[in-house]
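For this section, I looked closely at a protein sequence along with its fold in token form, which I now present.
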Amino acid sequence: MNKLFRFKHFKFSWQLGLTLILLFSIPRFFLVLKANKTGNYQFTSFVFLVMILSPFLLLMKQGRNAIGMKMPGSIKWLALSFILGVLASSLAFYLGKLLYQDTIENWFVYISKSYSSIPASELNGDGKFTFFAMFALVGMTFSPIGEELMYRGLIHESFVPKFGDRKASILDSLAFGLVHLAHFGLIFRSGSWDLLLIPGMIWVTLMYLSSRLFFFCKSKTQSIFGAILCHAGFNFGMTYFIFYHIF
């Protein structure tokens, strides 16, 4: 009897990992591109919601435990995970600032365009903090929970039987990094699409390395919550830099 999956023919395998990457990454990639063009991001939030639900729909309790959905083994490392995420976003911000200043080639500058729904008049005084808190809260929940349960959870564990933990982390991190090319690298400006090759490659590399950091935090906490908190810390830092150093 399969005690990991709800469906008897399912098992953790590289085929399942590849299927999940294709199933979630390709639609998400094009939805983000469309959102960058239209300014409507509601459908990307739906993808994150499906990611969050997937472990509950596919896995039994033992299966969820196998992907790290369990109590952390180190509370100290939970706090450190969040701090490391903030530090990683700080590195990404200052590297972008150093290389590209405030131009569109700076990844955080381009990503800040997705916040265009905020009235310019609200970015002064108390209104700025209110919107920062709202965007930070959303950024620290949907994306970190959904992506970590999927990439560091289901996809990672699917690659482990064939490749082992280290190579599985490399593979899920590559998938994670490449899908973020839709957030920056392939950009929409002046009514057309442009590929920023070098800045885009740097951004994908940063996302790959951040993904490896998320896995490191998962390993240190012995729980997926370490990865989620590290990812949440990264998004918190990114939101802070956008609101208080770019706007």
